Task: structure prediction
Amino acid sequence: MLAGLEVIQTLNDHHYATRHPVEVVVWTNEEGSRFAPAMVASGVFAGEFALEYGLSRTDLNGVTIGQELDRLGYAGMRVCGGQPVHAYFEAHIEQGPILEAEKRVIGVVQGLQGQRWFDCTVQGMESHAGTTPMPRRRDALLGATHIVQAVQEAALAQAPYGVGTVGQLIVHPNSRNVIPGRVDFSIDLRHPEDGPLKAMAEAVRAALDRLGELGLTGTLQEIWYAPPTSFHPDCIAAVRRAAEHLHLPHMDMISGAGHDAKYLAQVCPSAMIFIPCKDGISHNEIEDATPEDVAAGCDVLLRAILEKATE
Amino acid sequence: MLAGLEVIQTLNDHHYATRHPVEVVVWTNEEGSRFAPAMVASGVFAGEFALEYGLSRTDLNGVTIGQELDRLGYAGMRVCGGQPVHAYFEAHIEQGPILEAEKRVIGVVQGLQGQRWFDCTVQGMESHAGTTPMPRRRDALLGATHIVQAVQEAALAQAPYGVGTVGQLIVHPNSRNVIPGRVDFSIDLRHPEDGPLKAMAEAVRAALDRLGELGLTGTLQEIWYAPPTSFHPDCIAAVRRAAEHLHLPHMDMISGAGHDAKYLAQVCPSAMIFIPCKDGISHNEIEDATPEDVAAGCDVLLRAILEKATE
Result:
């Protein structure tokens, strides 16, 4: 948002007139931390969600987004969405370690990963850790270790863009001297293309089928699917040209996180600009970026906007 | 306890006089469910624990064993321990699946497994499941899967008696879209001999050392060690002879669970008799044994006691 204001101020300082008007947008509830889902306002703007749906989302205390916007005086008068947009640019820290590792200042973002979320359960049989011989065990945790490793291998097989994560895992009954009877865990698969994303899911499913050899059963339930997003070639090119013009080391990349640009790309030509962040850390109090990199990102944003706003 | 009373009643019914007196003992707090540690009364009898220590163990409400024995009138007058015991026999369900699977009625128990309990931690680095490429991850859960499998392999390498279990496992921060930064878990290793038990622990430690290849560190802390217990050859032989005399299918075996005989074996010749239990299930409301197997166990107990009480 500050980058957008800096662009406007720079244009005003130089009395620079564009063919298309330039607007800065702060999308309500991008993170989704208080109100789920994330990116709800850009989703309403793009027609992904109905306005009533967006306004009626509640926090843990039952307060709605609509009530809070009214209370703060931020509800506004304009209709949300529906107007034509010539181009949309969004600048962001990378939230990952690639630019820092590759010593690049600008990420020319090609699009957002597609994402599939699964709930997985491995079922075995609880039994006594002392009296049950190894060949007679049906250890659900042992089975789960093979699935966790299969997720890793499925992602590595789709290098460099495929990522797969088991972030949440619960053992039942989770007792020191009881062989686990059931393990529940999450699987998060991401890839910028649908084909490899499907192949990753199939590899995990095949690993689950092999659990029968261990006397176990596995179930996999898909709970969320977000298709891959490709940004507009013209907007991507505008970002790349800006970085080249400014002699900034840059590279093409894919966003691993979600952004408002995901929904905007459904209704208008869009692209994103990434800058490095310290140690790739984000959503943490130690999140950091250098003033030089922030300034470079603003410069690229200015040039990319100018290219599209004057054509 | 009922088996012991049945033996006494049978001897009395037949006016059978033995050279040594036969006593039936019900050891207080064998399970340790309300008061930790388990087998505290037999431990006091055998000198493993001081009497004051045993009496002062508390439940979750702070009530002590001593207070409850006084309240129930079960404190008794006799000194606990110190008297000579010619032989000790304990009959029990197997609490495991081996006798049932092998179609044997009597387990001639050779001793109790030694046991080593560890707390293990694998440390990696929390990071974003979407933005962190696979080669840059330090996934503590992925590391933990290798240790869980190493525990399995270490036990299989000490077949048929070695068992190894990871029963408790906690993932941090346990969030669907965060790569696990730390995993804490228990390791339970058991074997009837100290050498193989040590080899199992060393195999697990070697696997932890290899975590460095994944950018992870591992720590292993031993929190409990119970040495293996071997029962007395004469008492074991008395049990085997009784089973043979009664033409009962029998087999030598090792107890995977703890029993009062563990402590008694420290102060007198001891042995145990196992009978099958349905599906190997114990410590569960569906624990079950057939009347025929229970009667067979009583018969073996009677004959074994008679052999030692009349010699």
Q: What stands out?
A: The domain at 114-226 of chain B is CATH 3.30.70.360 (Alpha-Beta Plaits). The mean pLDDT of chain B is 95. The CA atoms of residues 156 and 162 of chain B lie 7 Å apart.
